[in-house]
């Protein structure tokens, strides 16, 4: 159904299908019971009010999660109804419509048991949605009572229109509900002097941000970034800084969050936190996470970066210190990720890093398995090295810190878990280490060190063996470039077949040869 507009706030969590079914079973069976009882509550005794609502035993955070799960089920059901309708499977359409009707009523009843101060607009949409669902059920019931094709064809248009309207009302109601809940949480944070109440509200807000970009936009539009930075400027809430900053990092993945951050001088506040040695390492790490988020090279909006440049030197200095003193892999990862992102958008950052002796600090950290313990951390380090390698002074620093040996080791990076995320990180490590070698090998001393460490045979292996590079084209291109740079310095290090196939032709021809190469050729 092309005109069906389902709400963009629905966020499908990728989990095992059996696990998803087990989680949804309670909601589904409750719904079937409600179908039979026509949405009337069950009472054990006549005079006793005993509402068996799913949400009664949960906190506000759990209630919101329950609401989102129920909304996800309704959204999924509406999509399935549209699919069945296209195939004219009227019996299935009707049974699913009845189920959606009950789910909608259950969702509204559940929500009204724990919410407060619902707006008149929300009540109007609740009534509109319930009425339209009832109309929808009545339509589909009439459809299963006739077999006349002409009548069904004419009714299908009405059913389609009604389905579209139900989806629109449902999306608007969910939008209102989530906005209302975001407003409530932000009001709690604004008005409360209690650390405990404020912490609960921030935790619930963070939980909402994990449901996707749409919810982050709602929170940002309702002033979430402004409210959270107010917390970060009050000493009485210092113990809440890590959780508050983590929530800010989530909200700042959307453009609306960035605009808010700019308005409240958020970058200046982050710089103050990072340079204040009285804060805990956890607070510094979460501030680094916000910096990493707002400097991500994947973001298309960069208006905030002008104010960032004004505070860059002190931020970079604090992040290098955090890398040097990191007590765990997680802290190092957050600090190094922020540094890696910063090196992408301004070469001045690379010059500051060179002045701060960052190359030596990062190379030393890589030999400490306590802090650099995953391909993700090595990915950040090699990103910084690759971006710094454009500076001529970088070559001597790399040699002094035994950096060529590290780059050689990174060419052997392999995933231990086999997870897609870790495999992708390993590919990035291999690619960037080859890029760094190619850039640095313009210096004869670096090229000589790389050749002595047998970089050429490893690069050839990566070019010729698709499994060694996990069939990655980006790794192949980087390795061909590095190999060609080293071959200029030491042509005798290559066999004639390697030279003829990997160095002498145009790079694109060597690339095509290697991508079509069978494993048995190696």
TrEMBL record:
Chain ranges of the Protein inscuteable homologue C-terminal domain: 70-522
Q: Name one GO biological process term.
A: regulation of asymmetric cell division
Domain Protein inscuteable homologue LGN-binding stretches: 13-57
Q: Which GO terms describe its cellular component?
A: apical cortex
For this UniProt entry, the molecular function terms from Gene Ontology, in alphabetical order, are: cytoskeletal anchor activity
Q: Which domain of life is it from?
A: Eukaryota
Span of the signal peptide: none
Ranges that cross the membrane: none
**The protein, known as:** INSC protein
Query: What broad taxonomic lineage does this protein's source fall under?
Result: Eukaryota, Metazoa, Chordata, Craniata, Vertebrata
């Amino acid at each position: 159904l092309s005109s069906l507009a389902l709400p963009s706030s629905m966020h499908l969590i990728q989990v095992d299908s059996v696990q998803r079914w087990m989680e949804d079973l309670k909601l589904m069976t409750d719904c079937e019971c409600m179908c039979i009882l026509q949405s009337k509550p069950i009472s054990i005794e006549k005079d006793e009010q005993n509402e068996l609502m799913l949400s009664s035993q949960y906190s506000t955070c759990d209630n919101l999660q329950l609401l989102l799960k129920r909304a996800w089920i309704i959204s999924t059901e509406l999509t399935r109804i549209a699919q069945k309708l296209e195939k004219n499977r009227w019996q299935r359409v009707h049974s699913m419509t009845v189920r959606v009707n009950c789910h909608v009523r259950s969702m509204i009843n559940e929500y009204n048991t724990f919410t407060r101060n619902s707006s008149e607009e929300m009540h109007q949409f609740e009534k509109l949605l319930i009425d339209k669902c009832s109309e929808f059920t009545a339509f589909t019931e009439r459809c299963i009572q006739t077999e006349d094709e002409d009548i069904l064809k004419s009714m299908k248009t009405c059913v389609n229109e009604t389905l579209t309207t139900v989806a629109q009302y449902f999306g608007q109601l969910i939008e209102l509900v989530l906005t209302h809940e975001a407003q409530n949480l932000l009001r709690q944070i604004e008005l409360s002097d209690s650390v405990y109440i404020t912490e609960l509200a921030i935790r619930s807000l963070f939980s909402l941000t994990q449901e996707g970009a749409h919810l982050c936009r709602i929170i940002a539009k309702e002033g979430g970034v402004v409210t959270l930075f107010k917390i970060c400027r009050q000493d009485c809430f210092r113990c809440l800084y890590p959780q508050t900053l983590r929530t800010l990092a989530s909200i700042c993945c959307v453009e609306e969050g960035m605009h808010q951050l700019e308005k409240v001088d958020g970058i200046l506040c982050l710089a103050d936190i990072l340079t204040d040695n009285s804060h805990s390492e956890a607070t510094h790490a979460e501030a680094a996470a916000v910096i990493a988020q707002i400097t991500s090279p994947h973001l298309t909006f960069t208006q905030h970066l002008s104010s960032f440049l004004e505070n860059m030197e002190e931020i970079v200095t604090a992040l290098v210190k955090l890398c040097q003193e990191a007590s765990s892999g997680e802290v190092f990862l957050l600090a190094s990720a922020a540094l890696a992102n910063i090196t992408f958008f301004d070469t001045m950052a690379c010059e500051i890093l060179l002045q701060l002796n960052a190359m030596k600090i990062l190379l030393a950290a890589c030999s400490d398995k306590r802090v650099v313990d995953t391909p993700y951390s090595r990915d950040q380090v090699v990103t910084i090295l690759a971006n710094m390698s454009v500076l001529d002074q970088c070559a001597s620093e790399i040699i002094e810190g035994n950096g060529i040996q590290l780059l050689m080791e990174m060419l052997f990076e392999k995933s231990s878990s086999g997870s897609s995320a870790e495999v992708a990180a390993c590919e990035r490590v291999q690619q960037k280490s080859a890029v760094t070698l190619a850039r640095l090998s313009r210096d004869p001393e670096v090229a000589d060190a790389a050749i002595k460490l047998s970089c050429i045979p490893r690069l050839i292996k990566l070019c010729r063996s698709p499994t060694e590079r996990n069939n990655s084209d980006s790794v192949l291109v980087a390795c061909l470039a590095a190999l060609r740079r080293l071959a200029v310095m030491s042509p005798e290090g290559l066999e004639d077949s390697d030279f003829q196939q990997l160095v002498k032709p145009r790079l694109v021809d060597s690339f095509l040869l290697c991508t079509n190469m069978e494993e048995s050729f190696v």
